[in-house]
Amino acid sequence: MRRRHLHVALLALTAMTGSVLMATAPAGADPAHPTAGAGAKRSHLEAQESVRLVRLQLTGADMLDKVVAAGFDLEHGVKRVPTGIEGEAVVTAEQVAELQSMGVRILDADEGFAWNEQADGGFQAAGRQAVAPLSHEQTVRVVRADWFTTKGQGFLYVEARTTEGQQEDPVVGMQLENDSGRGTSFGFARTMSRFVDSGQYMFHRNLFKLDERPSQIRVTSSTGGVTTGKVSDWLENAPPPLTENRGYKSDFVDGYQTPQQLYSRAKEIARQYPDIAQIIYLPNKTNGYQRKAQATIGGTGQSAVVVSSAAWGHEGGNDISVDFVERPGADLPLAVEVTGKAIRVLLAKDAAGALASTAAQVATALETQSAGLVDRAHPYRTNTGTGIVAATGGPIALTDFLDQKRVGAPEGEVPRGPATIPVLRIGKHRDGTKPGVLIQAQDHAREWVPATTSLESAERLVHNYRTDRETKKIVEGTDVFFILSNNPDGANYSFYNFASQRKNLTNHCPDENADPGRRDSWGVDLNRNYRVGSGHDGYAGGSTVCTSGTYQGPEELSEPESQNIIWLVEKYRNIKFMMSVHSNGGQLFWQPGAYIADGRITTPRPPLGDEAFYWQSAGRILSQVKAYRETVVTPENVGGSSDVLYSSAGNVREDLYHTYGIYAFGWEVGGSVYNPATGNWQGGSFQPPWEGDPNLVSGHSETMEYANGIMEMFRVAADWGKDKKDPKSSLVPGGGKYRAPVDVRFETNEPATVYYTTDGSRPTLQSQRYEATEFREPGQVFHVTATTTFKWFSVDAAGNVENNYDPTKKGKRDSYRTATIRIDKK
Ligand SMILES: [Zn+2]
What we know:
- The protein is an alpha+beta fold.
- Helix content is 18%, strand content 27%.
- The protein has an 8-stranded mixed beta sheet, with helices on both faces. Strands 1-2-40-37-35 form a 5-stranded antiparallel beta sheet, with no helix packed on it. It has a 5-stranded mixed beta sheet with strand order 11-12-8-7-15, with no helix packed on it.
- Helix 9 (608-629) crosses helix 12.
- The chain binds zinc ion.
């Protein structure tokens, strides 16, 4: 980015902070899928299609868009890799063939790309041996170089940019070298991977194993640019976790929890700890764990009729039967008889005595003559129903297909019908005076670990409040709102019917996708249903196809579950932090989370102060995750979600941050654990074995380590609430006389945003904002060529203004900062 005003030109600077990407891993365990229910006679069309989890490789964002548009659900487990994008999908054999015809590669379970196996070599950099002249800083910049260790293994992750990165012919290559500690020489040259997204060059990057921590790196471009950068630590030297405090208890959750179990425990907590906890009921009931009773009968293709009951299955729909009857004789009209819940369709016959009713005719007769039992009847999928319907040979029972019981799920009836979602609110002072933190789990039904992670955090708050000083500070300094499952209907479906369910259960599909064979694909992706950067506004990553895994809904906030979130943050205005908890992937991110694909135009990037605050908070949170069993969420998986993952139009975080100023994090818990036995990163799954290998994929271990992180997020919020100290900033180097043009930049003593002027005017919140050189990089550098006066102030993440300056109204003695850079060339 380059901006010009007056005599100030902005120049890029070599920089050293920021972060990003990582090793993919083989697909996790194939989630169980239910077997078709036994009992009532059903046509083969309704049989559950057999599905499996496969790992896919796509060439890039364009292909991802096409695959998503075709209705495939590629959420989670998605990684950017040097050759494109890898992800997982739950698909049928037929869909595998469809994906392959689109050019998608199906990877074997153990074929995940490992960054650390990346081959060296490649181009021969021109002038690589040359000493870097200063002017080359323009062409190559180090974005970040991070060292981290996990399970006894060191890693170096590097991002670097070249100003010629967008160039296609020829593509500009970058080579990376590192030293082996202070004072050693550079070596170990590696070719960096060029990362392009939605047609835009992002940066070059590498992640690889190293046994010794380097002190510096050197990056060389094929056009001759050279720069060096210092290596920083990532999550090294984490402070001890709260779990090491005496009197601090943890490990409360002992298995996966259905929505009923979660809600009932939440209510029990409120009863047991009335001084610090209460339940708030969200006002909009869900659309319900319920479906219309259905059958597809009468034949296949043009001859098939899809029948749906008017009543919900559990309210009488499941008692309905439909019989297509062939009577003896000839020249008989089509007729419908209803006796109680038994519908008999007497099929027409022609003069020769052959059956003569088409599927379209039978559907119309059912809709109009079934005494209100049938609400919807239509031909199958895209057929127009021109085929002659066959007799069924007896009554066919309609069913809502909610009668299956998954082995291992708790006994007892799953409550049918709309659900009311309770919010567990924990805090000593629940009066709006303390910063509110919203923990929202399980928007996506099959993500079971987010729910247990959130419940574990709630348990730690109430159990340790009286025995642990740090927990007491959290409970007294924050106001926490837990939504332990924001998608109870879908979650029940995931537990009891179809483990891979992602969306809610609302069926918005038109006739062509409304037959019961499509039932596992209905529903709205609740995290695509919000208003900012939404698919309805042209942002990428939400689908208009009702059967897609990322279906955004018929309109923004169409679903009660998303309306509830907006209700909550509007009613409790003290909510200033939120964590949208998902699985799995090992990522922590924030804004921007969506872009318009053409030109890759993101939602507005947070100002530098917010960006720095997000990074600082992420470091704290992830250090505590690491403290449990050395799981490292790697720097390439931290940042704006559309930069580190992909664009997700209409996600909740964009709405809460941009509409309400809430620091809205999202994370993907689980997955991406380094396995020292194999030397590879192992990916997670949505429902890992609860007691799996405690060092690898395990629901229990993931719950415990990520609950550590949520506890730290509460401490971030508590500290934020107590922060009454104004930030300090400076112009570096300072004002004074210079004999030649000089490069200057702003520095702040804490995450803060600087507003400045160079035209002599008083700085306000409408003034120029001090920006990053480029995203994921620190602040820009001004190349000052003529005498310039800077006037500025800074604002920290908690809203404190430097020197208590009031930028909104002119005071008698304005306390903004000022400095004059005097260029005196003689
Ligand atoms: Zn999710």
